[in-house]
Amino acid sequence: MLGYKISAALLLTLTLAGCASSQLARNVENADRARAESAKRRSAATDTSTTAAQIPRDTDGGPVSVLTVNGHDVTVDEILAPLRSDLQERVERMPPAEYRDHVVKAVNAQVGSTIRDSLLYQEAAKDITEEEDLFIDGLVDQEIRKLVNAQFAGRQTRFERELADNGSSLGEQRDQVRRRLLIMRWLQQTVYSKITDPTRDELMRIFAGQRDSFTTPPRRDMLIIEIAIEKNSRETARQSADAARAELLAGSDFGAVAGKHSTGWHKEKGGHWGWVTRGSVRERLEPAVDALFALSEAGVPSDIIETPLAFFVVQAAAIDYGKEADFTELQPQLVAKYRDMQFSKMVDGSVRKLQENAHYRPLDPNRFVHACLLAAPVPSSIPRTPGG
How does DSSP classify residue 71? Predict the structure, then answer.
């Protein structure tokens, strides 16, 4: 019976994209050129694979709608299906240039991820025994049932109707789950089992290199009254600030006092600015934030802060003193991070080897990327090019 244990954190790495498209294209071209030069000296490929020597090198370099990876086809629809709803939402609201950049990045990432998954699946599906095949089928059934129960109140018909509305089917959904489970199984057997626990020195290096990411800076939930001098004389503005502070010291509600005296943007919110850290506000507000952090407790108004442009009174609604990174406390997280880093490095190494030995048609995957870009949604104001 095959094992089926893998941490949730490690599973997240399965969704990471592989090499960038340009680098992938170079890797593919170099690998296929080498194979083409030596193809006559090697045995013929199996009937499920096409060698570079058997692939005519196209001269027009135009877009192609199917990318073949070791005899397995990847279609434009397969690339765009998971992206389409996001692209359709963005296409009309984003500036054309910004949308174009987003489409190029999203399509390249999806193509790289799909090629990566295809190569991993091809390896994972090799030499499956009948017993393992039945076990995987049982796991697929379990995953589908979980999905139906969680998202469709246990109603299979609702689930299948939703799939149909999205141009999919139960068979396609089962195939996707099966592919994912087989990849998980293969990675556990070939990669995860080789991961070792870190030494203390290795943990210390991770801790030192990423200490800031484990540290929470101090912050304060700021209430602020701002009285602009440009809307009053300096003397009048000062008198208003004095009155506001006196009312706060007498126990008046900060929101009511801000509504009465403040001229700042947050007047309508009762002077509630929200959480701030040092250095997180514009320069003209820094004296107010400095005074806020000088307060020893919440609920007490500051002294009046005078600047060339305004008078301020601030108060902390809440105080978060932050947290310094503690190596001993963080050791479980550091171990998990180290193992994740090892896992990602090993998977990347495995994928690179699979890419180097894979057979692609066309030889330049960017021709397929081009076809995907042509088929992506475009703003209604921009007509599609012929064939796009």
Answer: T
